[in-house]
Specification:
Helix content is 32%, strand content 22%. By secondary structure, the chain is α/β, with parallel strands linked by helices. The strands form two sheets. It has an eight-stranded mixed beta sheet with strand order 3-2-1-4-13-14-15-16. Strands 5-6-7-8-9-10-11-12 form an eight-stranded parallel beta sheet. A hairpin with a 2-residue loop joins strand 14 and strand 15. The chain binds zinc ion. Zinc ion (ZN) binds at residues 57, 59, 117, 225, 261, 311.
Length: 428
């Protein structure tokens, strides 16, 4: 394979400042060399080039709810009823089309890898499809069609409450008969080059203690929703006499292969328990659903590794998620300056919680994922390069996206999909 040479006006190589005039040699989908301070040669990338962004928490079908649940007051729980209506209507073909469009929107936003927390497994009433993984396979195909990688986190969902009440209504599409049924089903998921298969427990609400106890995060990546709502904490306290975090800890589920999602309502002891775990914040969803503000800085100080997700896709913009982590802390503490731009970019590009240890850095040997952000747009012009990305840019400022050495977005346009049309046609 010949070398493709990219010349980045600026590139973030992991430090506190952007490097200038960086030559990036790519061969066979990998970065071969990264050399700052070289005069322009090869394909020019004007602006700031970042490693690929990783969207660590997605439920693709929630995109169909954007802008449709904002009238009236409502809570997380009334929003959930609307979400269930959307879930009730999808089949493998229509979910493939919707997810392809959503992942196309992610590619346009600079996301090169998605962690899909997948629980819409079965047909109406819980009826198995001929291929019991038809929905998961539709998602894997959708990511490939959109030009991005996926970590499919096949989700165990067995009960409707922390007391172990059975699933009802649309939830029956989410559930397997037992943990053994679930485990044998996910053994049948096809492995493809652009996909990692991981697993998830939906939450302490949806997986009873005996099932949680036999899960092995060592076979991860393993993800779980945690303490998004105070009601979950109260139910867990009533049932198990402890917080959801302590309950996961007692069940042996915290540690380096685990990512907890939200971690909004934590005690100080919970924060300490999460010191070896990855924590995924989803600030635009958490604000949309009025969840609250999680203790991002305290978790980071304890040792937890931060990653980011667009979750319900009220917004698909990891720059917005990244700055929200800092800006929410400012609102809470009435002080500025909790995270550096480099720390926030590290969270936005963290691939290891998705099981990709060779992505997320512009360095030799890593996957050739390049995301170039314009520094001359009306939003970004005049800002320092790293601050521009974190505090000024939006998804619309992404100009070039290369995934595994393949150009997927050029001049702000997806190379194979008309994403807006596909979204319009699949959302209806
Ligand atoms: Zn979620």
């Amino acid at each position: 394979m010949p070398v493709t040479r990219y010349h980045a006006e600026y590139a973030w190589l992991g430090g506190s400042d952007a490097a200038r005039d960086v030559l990036i040699d790519v061969r066979d989908g990998r970065i071969e060399a990264v050399t700052p301070g070289v005069p322009a040669e090869g394909t020019r990338l004007p602006g700031l080039t970042l490693p690929g962004l990783a969207n660590a928490h997605s439920h693709a079908f929630h995109r169909a709810l954007r802008g449709r649940t904002h009238t009236g007051a409502g809570t997380f729980w009334t929003w959930r009823e609307r979400m269930y209506e959307v879930a009730s209507q999808l089949d493998p073909d229509s979910y493939h089309r919707l997810a392809r469009a959503v992942y196309g929107e992610m590619a346009l936003a600079g996301i090169t890898c998605v962690g899909e927390f997948h629980y819409l497994h079965h047909g109406p009433g819980g009826t198995r499809y001929a291929d019991p993984n038809a929905m998961g396979h539709a998602l894997i195909a959708a990511a490939r069609d959109a030009g991005i990688r996926i970590t499919l986190l096949d989700t165990l969902y067995l009960s409707s409450t922390v007391d172990g009440s059975p699933l009802h209504g649309v939830q029956r599409r989410f559930g397997d008969e037992s943990i053994d049924d679930w485990a044998s089903r996910i053994d049948g998921l096809r492995r493809e080059d652009h996909a990692v298969v991981g697993f998830a427990a939906h939450s302490v609400r949806a997986v009873p203690a005996p099932a949680l106890a036999v899960l092995d995060p060592g076979k991860g990546p393993f993800h779980v929703h945690l303490s998004e709502q105070r009601a979950e904490n109260e139910a867990c306290q009533a049932r198990y006499g402890c917080s959801p975090t302590e309950f996961l800890d007692r069940s042996g589920l915290l540690g380096p292969n685990t990512t907890v999602v939200h971690a909004t309502h934590l005690t100080e002891a919970d924060v300490t328990r999460l010191r070896d775990t990855a924590v995924c914040f989803c600030p635009t969803t958490e604000r949309d659903l009025a969840d609250g503000i999680g203790p991002a800085r305290a978790l980071t100080e304890a040792g937890a590794r931060l990653c980011l997700g667009s979750d319900s896709h009220a917004v698909i913009d990891l720059f917005e998620e990244a700055r929200a982590v800092e800006l929410d802390e400012r609102l809470r503490t009435e002080r500025r300056g909790h995270f550096t731009p480099a720390e926030l970019l590290a969270a936005a590009t963290a691939h290891e919680p998705l099981g990709w240890t060779d992505a997320g850095r512009l360095a030799p040997g890593y996957r050739a994922d390049l995301v170039t952000v314009a520094l001359d747009s009306v939003r970004t012009v005049g800002a320092e390069p790293l601050s521009a990305a974190v505090f000024a840019a939006g998804a619309a400022d992404v100009r070039t996206v290369v995934v595994d050495g393949r150009p997927v977005v050029v001049d702000g346009r997806h190379q194979t999909l008309d994403v807006a049309r596909e979204l319009r046609e699949s959302i209806g």
